[in-house]
Amino acid sequence: MSVTARIALVIALAIILRPAAARAQAADDHQLIEALLARVQALEAEVKALKDAQARPGEPQPAAPAVPTTPVEMGLGGGVGPALQIHGFADIDYQRPGDPLTNGSFALGQLDLFMNSALSDNTSVVGELVTEADDLNAFHVDLERLMVQFRPSDYLNIGVGRYHTAIGYYNTAYHHGTWFQTATGRPFLFRFEDEGGPLPVHGVGVTANGRIPSGALGLRYVAEVANGRASRSPLVEPVQNTVDENNGKSYNVALLAQPDRLTGFQAGVSMYRDRLEPEGLPRIRQTILAGHVVYHGHGLELLNEAFALRHAPAVGATVTTPAFYSQIARQFAQRATPYFRYEYFNAPDRESIFGDIGLRKGPSLGVRFDVEAFAALKVQYDRTVRRHADPVNGFATQLAFTF
Amino acid sequence: MKCLAGFGSMVALVAILGLAGRAPVAAQRANQEALAIVVNRANPIDDLSTDELRKALLGSRQRWPNGRKITVVMRPPGDADRDTVLRLVCRMSETEFRKYLLQATFTGETSSGPRVLDTPLGVRRFVFNVPGAIGYIRLSEVDDTVKVIHIDGRAPTDPDYRLTVGPRAAGTTAAVHE
Fold it and tell me: B72 pLDDT exceeds 80?
């Protein structure tokens, strides 16, 4: 029996063997909470109405509202089905990439509709539907995430579907909503596959994570099995949503530490392995090692991640591509956040998958203004130094918001 | 001798300044009221550390030791009690808290945020009825329908209890608690 089949069997057994009573209790609790919340909110509305009536004795008593006063969820109505929450994220940009072949342009960024719904106390669904325009100004709709999560305890959270792989830190901390990010875009390493990013940002498969009993050390684990990424080619869809190019699955394991004493601090390591079968080339064993140290707190953001992307072809020498980025940001007066990022990615010329990327390094400097609680204006300058090519200076402004 | 006199004067000065500085603090404390962290009476938990409380409020810890799901109930944004809990426990402003919750939902870390109820009465009723619920109300608003837990080993009646809040502004929901 293969390793993948064993893992699937263990997960299936864990789900099946979970006591039916516990499942029933979780579902009952969820329904009870929803019913109570509605009841309490209705009672509060009545009390408020009565108080208002007392305050204005000469006026007729207003009727109490029949619906909760603080509706935060959009349900199917009458408790027919699970409530669905939808959040929108979008950005509108002006970009001048610095490439002489590309004009400065206003640009619609991604329109990201994020949906989540709790099916019970233990089970939930997240989905992310993104509409964006390509380089030919044509719009496309992509299902960027669709994952059913089952969380029977803090020690086990299993997700099945399409998710962001837990390679390093940035990929799971930030998804498609640019409003969350301090900078206008993701570090080059974490660019999405269809934008030329080198990492398998998305995975289709099974992901599990949870706490490790470790006291104040706050250890967590992640383990993932997925189809992996198609061998890097701009001509094919890189995320293997329905068909894997081979029977080999990708594996990713990560260990994270979030110590109690250092609120906002996280350190972690991860290892990702896959087998690539690029057309016309020998089979390649891919290993991606990542380590990170990050801190968020007191208005400070420190992100540091380092990578070694190792490709071992069946024939020929193993090639390792080192990469890292560091980002520092400091928020002032809860509005202005100047930031600085330095990125480095150095694929040797003989690298068969990333050879076209080669060397990319350079700083980004910018400021984020939180003009509203849920809208931010960002201004950013980038300088990218490349091997065998002139450096490029880019400029971008972005209005990112959530609604 | 002069040296001793000078030292004595310094001590006296420090004492006076210390007392002068302490008087307003004492007066300020006298106006403060403890915020009690309340759970369902069936919950076996008696004490939480501030770190544990923060994790529960932020959703990074979602289960009680007995396996029950933690359901957080809070007052609405703008409420002084909520601001105090966010500042002293979560170490966040309202904006930071909302952004945190949105991001936690977005990353799939939590599936829903805290329940929001307008009145202490509502909080008490909710905590009374939901076995895994946790909320906060002023000590004067506590009754025997809910269980008050210690924070870092201190009860709300202890003089060094940290979770305190100033008097409620006139016309707010405080009057609704009965």
Answer: yes
Residue-wise pLDDT tens digits, A392-403: 999 999 999 999
Question: Which residue from A43, A154, A180 is facing B122, i.e. has the nearest CB?
Answer: A43
Q: What is the pTM of this model?
A: 0.78
Q: Is B176 on the interface with A (CB under 8 A)?
A: yes
Cα B46 to Cα A55: distance, rounded to the nearest angstrom: 41
User: Do strands B115-116 and B147-151 pair parallel, antiparallel, or not at all (unpaired)?
Assistant: unpaired
Burial code (b: 16+ CB inside 10 Å, e: under 16) for A351-389 equals bbbbeebbbbbbebebbbebeeebebebbbebebeeeee
Q: How many CA atoms lie within 13 A of A256 on its CB side?
A: 22
Residue-wise pLDDT for A196-247, tens only, equals 899 999 999 999 999 999 988 999 999 999 998 887 665 577 888 888 878 8
Q: Which helix (H) or strand (E) holds A322?
A: strand A319-330
Beta strands (DSSP E) in A97-153 are 105-118, 123-133, 139-153
Tokens of B132: 């895994």
**Residue A44: pLDDT over 80:** no
Per-residue pLDDT of A97-129, as tens digits, reads: 777 777 889 999 999 999 999 998 899 999 999
**Chain B contact for A85 (CB, 8 A cutoff):** yes
> In the CATH scheme, what architecture does the domain A87-402 have?
Beta Barrel (2.40)
Residue of B nearest to A119 (CA): B111
Per the CB < 8 A criterion, the answer to whether A203 and A252 are in contact is yes
Give the whole-number percent of chain A exceeding pLDDT 70.
79
Domain ranges of chain A: 1-70, 87-402
Distance in angstroms (rounded) separating the CA atoms of residues B37 and A311: 54
| CA nearest neighbour of A167 among A285, A292, A258 | A292
Instruction: Determine the Cα–Cα distance for residues B31 and B15; give it in Å rounded to an integer.
Output: 24
B:111-150 residues touching chain A, CB 8 A cutoff:
111-113, 115-119, 121-122, 125-126, 129-132
Contacts of B176 in chain A (CB under 8 A): 47-48, 51
User: How does DSSP assign A196-251, residue by residue?
Assistant: T-SS--EEEEEEEEEE-S-GGG-EEEEEEEE--BPPS-TTS-SB-SS--SSSPPEE
Distance in Å, alpha carbon of B13 to nearest chain A alpha carbon: 36
- Chain A positions in Cβ-Cβ contact with residue B113 (cut-off 8 Å): 72
Residues B92, A313: Cα–Cα separation, whole Å: 50
Pick from A199-203, A212-216, A279-283, B87-91: least confident: A279-283
User: Are B108 and A116 a contacting pair at CB < 8 A?
Assistant: yes
Amino acid at B168: R
Which has more confidence, B102 or A271? A271
For residues A391 and A401, the answer to whether their CB atoms sit within 8 Å is no
* pLDDT above 90: percentage of residues in chain A: 59
Residue of A nearest to B98 (CA): A373
Q: A135-144, A329-338, B19-28: which range is least confident on average? A: B19-28
| ipTM for the predicted complex | 0.73
Structure tokens at A144: 């960027």
